[in-house]
TrEMBL record:
Name this protein carries in UniProt: Aldehyde dehydrogenase
Biased composition (Basic and acidic residues): 1-15
Keywords associated with the record: Oxidoreductase
Listed InterPro entries: Ald_DH/histidinol_DH, Ald_DH_C, Ald_DH_CS_CYS, Ald_DH_CS_GLU, Ald_DH_N, Aldehyde_DH_dom
Family: Belongs to the aldehyde dehydrogenase family.
CDD domains found in the cross-reference section: ALDH_DhaS (cd07114)
Keyword Oxidoreductase among record annotations: yes
Location of the Aldehyde dehydrogenase domain: 14-463
Source organism superkingdom: Bacteria
Residue numbers annotated as active site: E236
Start and end residues of each stretch annotated as Disordered: 1-23
Keyword match Signal: no
């Protein structure tokens, strides 16, 4: 049933000289159909009849196993996509937290009794699982992104077919071992690996919902296919987030927040604060400090705890980031740090890119409007609060934003006006499983994490019981 396996090279970041090979099967149309059929069979025969208490127990067991394997899974993910171990290992623990959080909801999916105008009609609602859900994840944080989707899907009683990115499939496949150890019934959780054609086959299959994290271009294809099949979608897409620093901010803390916003995870994150809006009174000082700090970032072996920034995740992304840097220079953005591939010493031959800072960026430039998904910061000066809000909102994206100020009224005004799904104040890139996450505009729709995520995997059902014993007019609606 499998096509000839696709062979892809995974760089061994421990030596930077040898290569490890991972063989990932390219699932064909028949494989996708078989996975969906297995999920449907499990849903109809077993999972939808499994109590919430039992679903929660299995999810907690899975969380325990993932947390115990955090070091192994973190090393595997860092080796696969170049993200530093100081982030991937904690991400495994955070993913485990998500499974525990949603496990607590598995037996608490309340319905409601509704008081109607007629006292002789009893009305109630239930919330029921959708059925079989396709979960399509990206390469930058495979296990974290999967937990955002899988945890609420399982808690609400759905079965799933997972399609990881072809650029980073290893941890998702390894995760299946933990699923088996946890004791989930066969067919509840299924994985199909492959490139774009596998994703298209899954999106076109007989699933009841699609949840996708990735690029806007692919999202448009998925949304169009979902429209043809009339199934709901959740889309968690990109961003060009504005990180706004006012002149009354705690300066040192704001510098750290700016660095975290763009250089953590090598900038390969949808929430990257890639547009740094700095009030004119502190603009020069801020740029000078950022250039100094960017030049001191430790790059190297992603498996070393001392490394602060790893590689671009794959060769196409590496080339794309470098093209974006050259395009920004051609547009007239002022380069103050970085700007090229990093090739010194052990970095030679890898997909390392210097932490890059552009100053005096105009918000109309491509570098300020297009998602780079790399360690490239655009600094945009502003004068007034109103100007900052206008620049921040002048974007096709609306995922996240940061606000740095010690002025409470300003905090309330600015956070109210920003058209995004997530705002951080005096912090950046902070996550909590309890907090809903998602965007507006071209950053997608629907929410992951938090109680709000449950609604994306449930369908309300209304039941109306007439106990009046009275006959009624068959040709008039009864109210």
């Amino acid at each position: 049933m499998h096509r000839e396996p696709v062979r892809r090279t995974v760089r061994d970041h421990q030596s930077f000289r040898s290569n490890r090979r991972a063989t990932v099967a390219q699932a064909g149309d028949e494989d996708v159909a078989a996975a969906v059929a297995a999920a449907r069979q499990a849903f109809d025969s077993t999972w939808r009849k499994t109590s919430g208490v039992e679903r929660g127990r299995l999810m907690v067991r899975l969380a325990d196993l993932l947390e115990a394997a955090a070091a192994h899974m973190g090393t595997l993910e860092s080796t696969d996509n170049g993200k530093v171990i100081r982030e991937t290992k904690p991400q495994m623990v955070f993913a485990a937290r998500a499974y525990r959080f949603f496990a607590g909801y598995a037996d608490k999916l309340w319905g409601a009794q509704l008081p109607l105008d007629r006292r002789d009609v009893f009305d109630y609602t239930t919330r029921e699982p959708l059925g079989v859900v396709a979960l399509i994840t990206a390469w930058n944080s495979p296990m974290g992104l999967l937990a955002n989707k899988l945890a609420p899907a399982l808690a609400t009683g759905n079965c799933v077919v997972i399609k990881p990115s072809e650029h980073a499939s290893a941890t998702t496949v390894e995760f299946c071992k933990l699923v088996e150890q946890a004791g989930f019934p066969p067919g509840v959780i299924n994985v199909v690996c492959g490139a774009a054609e596998t994703g298209r086959a899954l999106a076109a299959s007989a699933v009841d919902k699609i949840s996708f994290t990735g690029s806007g271009g692919v999202a448009r294809e998925i949304a169009a296919q979902a429209g043809r099949n009339l199934v709901p979608v959740t889309l968690e897409l990109g961003g060009k987030s504005a990180n706004i620093i006012f002149d009354d901010a705690d300066f040192d803390k704001a510098v750290s927040g700016a660095l975290a916003g763009i250089f953590a995870a090598t900038g390969q994150t949808c929430i990257a604060g890639s547009r740094l809006l700095v009030q004119r009174g502190i603009h020069g000082r801020m740029v000078e400090r950022l250039a100094q700090r960017a030049g001191a970032i430790r790059m190297g072996n992603p498996l070393s705890p001392a490394t602060e920034m790893g590689t671009a995740a794959n060769e196409p992304q590496f080339a794309r980031i470098l093209r974006s840097i050259e395009a920004a220079r051609a547009e007239g953005a002022q380069l103050v740090a970085g700007g090229k591939a990093a090739t010194a010493g052990e970095l030679a031959g890898g997909f390392f890119i210097e932490p890059t800072v552009f100053d005096h960026v105009d918000n109309r430039m491509g570098i300020a409007r297009e998602e780079v998904f790399g360690p490239v910061l655009s600094v945009i000066p502003f004068d007034t609060e109103e100007e900052a809000i206008g620049i921040a909102n002048d974007s096709p994206y609306g995922l996240a934003a940061g606000v740095w100020t010690q002025n409470l009224p300003r905090t309330l005004r600015v956070t109210r006006e920003l058209r995004v799904g997530q705002v951080w104040v005096n912090t950046y890139r902070s996550l909590a499983v309890q907090a809903p996450f998602g965007g507006v505009k071209q950053s997608g729709f629907g929410r992951e994490r938090g109680e709000a995520a449950l609604d994306g995997y449930l369908a309300p059902k209304n039941v109306m019981i007439d106990f009046s014993g009275e006959d009624f007019d068959a040709f008039a609606v009864k109210t």
